[in-house]
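User: Show me an example of a complex going from sequences to structure tokens.

Assistant: Sure. Here are the input components:
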Amino acid sequence: MTTVRGARARARIEITAAIKDEARTQLAAEGAAKLSLRAVARELGMASSALYRYFPSRDDLLTALIIDAYDALGAEAEKAAADTAGLRPLDRWTAVCRAVRAWALAHPHEYALIYGSPVPGYTAPQDTVAPAARVGLVLIETARRAHGGEGIALPPLPEALRPEAARLAADVAPDLPPALAVALVVAWSQLFGLVSFEVFGQFHRVVEDRDAFFAAAARRLGQDVGLLPRG
Amino acid sequence: MTTVRGARARARIEITAAIKDEARTQLAAEGAAKLSLRAVARELGMASSALYRYFPSRDDLLTALIIDAYDALGAEAEKAAADTAGLRPLDRWTAVCRAVRAWALAHPHEYALIYGSPVPGYTAPQDTVAPAARVGLVLIETARRAHGGEGIALPPLPEALRPEAARLAADVAPDLPPALAVALVVAWSQLFGLVSFEVFGQFHRVVEDRDAFFAAAARRLGQDVGLLPRG
DNA sequence: ACGAAATGAGAGCGGTGCTCTTGATTCCGA
DNA sequence: TCGGAATCAAGAGCACCGCTCTCATTTCGT
């Protein structure tokens, strides 16, 4: 359906990619705040006004970068899950967590773009919701596999959370018990709490051996969603 | 020591406060990205150049707002702890967590300023580290009180984390067992993971009954640092 | 009372996002 | 094939930004 019709369409695709590449370079170098359309255009040897043929506004460019960042992080998580397909659930879980952390540390500004303050507008554009869900889906899948065999022991839900838990489970993973669905969402947010604190410098002069710290915390996270240390 | 010497010094204090107030207003309305020194000066009826007599740069103004935000949040946490002095440790813990979340939801842009992407520079100015630690200290204190009576049962630390745990405990709370110190730092980051996901919209169309969800998650967090449901 | 320091206002520099117009190029259907 | 329509690059320009410099005024300490 999106067949390239001619030289013009081909050029458009290439130029769009070149703009995003250059923008990503500037993002990695200076952060989202200092990303400037004029500087991108300058680096690409084109007039700044021409750039608006490809991205209607700076926010649209940033949104494209956000989607790419979500996709890149999601791909890393999926790759980690695939590479550890034969391992025990808890080891797969920690592998996925490690992959998320490694990507975040390698691309701090892109990470900040997606898990820091939402800079463009207050509500995320619709196009970002699907890519944003990829890491969460990997975590769910990892837990689902573990749950396939025998049931996982989780502490009972407090009374007040029962309706929300049922609704949440129906939405994100209908075949999972509500208590597990809740635990997964909690662990999901806590994983990014750990990563964000490290990337954003909150652990400065607090945690030194961050590899060991994260490994232990991620393992605990996995146990909190019912993954057992052995067997 | 910082006695007001005359009308001039008094005016300087008042104007500095007025600038910060107006800046905070714009921050709350539009976010840090759209905070403009010129707009602040315009609103205050002064020349934009005059504003530089009070804050050498935009980043310095933001830094002042960051410190104030840390202090405001820290005060809320301390107040919650003080107001629940007689309650059981786990209830105190959840009260502190609730206070943090409530402040964050009430001041999303200020929260983003301190726990979102670090916008001014890459490393936080020295003046921000003490205010930034206040919430953490409240959490530590809450756990310390609980620990006063009998020892808290915590799962043993993995071998690889022992040295870091010992160092960390010596740094943040010498009288606490290393396992508890680690658990506290983990819970600290996870608390802000929960709050950040809610404030930054990651729970959009995922978690609906966020009050109940957060209450349960915060309670679990307290249990993870060894606070018992009853007793 | 007077010199020094602090303060305010204005002009101006280089940068930004974005719009509008103009002219050239490419596409596509009659 | 050819001519209208769509697309595109470029330049000028607007309003805004952070920040600096200069210069007049005001306040302070001695």
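The lines above are the inputs; the final block is the predicted structure for all four components together. Chain A touches chain B through 54 residues (CB under 8 Å).
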